[in-house]
Amino acid sequence: TAELVGKAIGVSYNSVGSLGSLQTVIIRGATSSKNLVFLDGVLLSSAHDSSVDLSIIPINIIERIEVVKSGPGNLGRTNAIGGMVNIITKKGQDSETPFSLTFENGSFLPLAYSSDQKRNYLSLVDSQKLDFSYTKEGLIVTVGGLAAENAYTYNDGSANLKLRDNAQVYEAYTNLSYTKDLSKALKITTQNVATFKNLGVPGSLSYGLTPNDYMNNTFISTTNTLELAQASPLLEKLTAQIHYGFGQTFYHDATFGDSTHTKHKASALIEGTYDLGQAYTLKTDLNYSLDYVDSTDVGQNTRHNIAGSAYGSIYFNDGSISLHPSVQVAYLSDLKTVSP
Asked: Could you tell me which residues come within 8 angstroms of residue 150 by beta carbon, excluding any fewer than 6 positions away?
């Protein structure tokens, strides 16, 4: 996923480790904590941990990725120092071949390592990826997984190469997206993603190897949207949306002890899109969000955010010149302040 994001000019990514490891986005030199990441328009970045691991979004469920390389943007209803990334997932459609099965194999060259110059020929089948999907009008279901030992050879400065150990990753994921027109004016959409990863933590040459450490990552996201078209002559569309996201990292540290970090993110949104003619666009919304973290290391923290915003566009000279004003007022419970 990060590699797709990194193809945009001015955008790059950091990858901490081998296949399956943490991936974060950099936009115009701004690190991940200064950028906003969205999934189908829903903010994934947390008030307590603004960095988002892009590897939790399976690449096979992605239709396209939109990158805004500037601070202000209607999508965020706020400003980001770097920019914004919006990951758009695939939607169901009729197909003559509704079923799809994909298999991939990855390998490393089995170079000689250690003092007896042995070779790990299993490196030729080091990683496997399997994806199965079914699609029809309005529905798409994807199930997949990844297994990789990441057992490559490396040079630690000694006379012989070494074989990387405890760098494996095992991942399983599923995605379900469903859209249904309840009537000519009313549409319902549900988008659900779940990912689980088990990763070995090999350690580093500088601070010591950790052959017994490992990490479990869990990510669950569900977004449910109800859209009403032409609610009134002026109100072109009225949208109600609820979202819940769950993330948990369990880290087994054989030296310093285990730790668990759990994040909950929930939001409810009502948004209105107004019909003001071809030269003007206007959207208003009222949003409530909850960010809650429960961590072995930092304890418990909660933020309730109640916000209202209005943002639009004004076009001049047949659209060659445009203005995009926006305003937002939010109350942040942990800071007990109103943020414009």
From this structure: 18, 19, 20, 126, 127, 164, 167, 168, 169, 200
User: In whole angstroms, what is the distance from residue 292 CA to residue 300 CA?
Assistant: 7
Six-digit token string for 46: 């947390």
Cα dist from 143 to 91, 100, 134, 135, 171, whole Å: 15, 11, 9, 12, 11
- Domain segments of the chain as ranges: 91-339
Cα within 13 Å of Cα(333), Cβ side: 11
For residue 32, the surrounding DSSP H or E stretch is none
91-339 has which CATH code? 2.40.170.20
**Contact of 265 with 244, CB cutoff 8 Å:** yes
DSSP secondary structure string, 268-310?
EEEEEEEE--TTEEEEEEEEEEEEEEEETTTEEEEEEEEEEEE
What does the buried/exposed string (b/e) look like for 108-117 if buried means 16 or more CB atoms within 10 Å of the residue's CB? bebeebeeee
Write the pLDDT tens digit of every residue in 195-233.
999 999 998 888 888 999 999 999 999 999 999 998 888
Section 38-67 average pLDDT: 85
Strands 36-39 and 84-89: parallel
Q: What is the pLDDT of residues 308-325, one digit of tens each?
A: 999 888 999 887 898 888
Consecutive H or E run containing 5:
helix 2-5
Name residues whose C-beta falls within 8 Å of residue 318's C-beta, 6 or more positions apart in sequence.
none
Query: Residue 177: its pLDDT value, please?
Result: 96
Q: Could you tell me which residue, 78 or 178, shows the higher pLDDT? A: 178
Mean pLDDT for the stretch of residues 96-101: 90
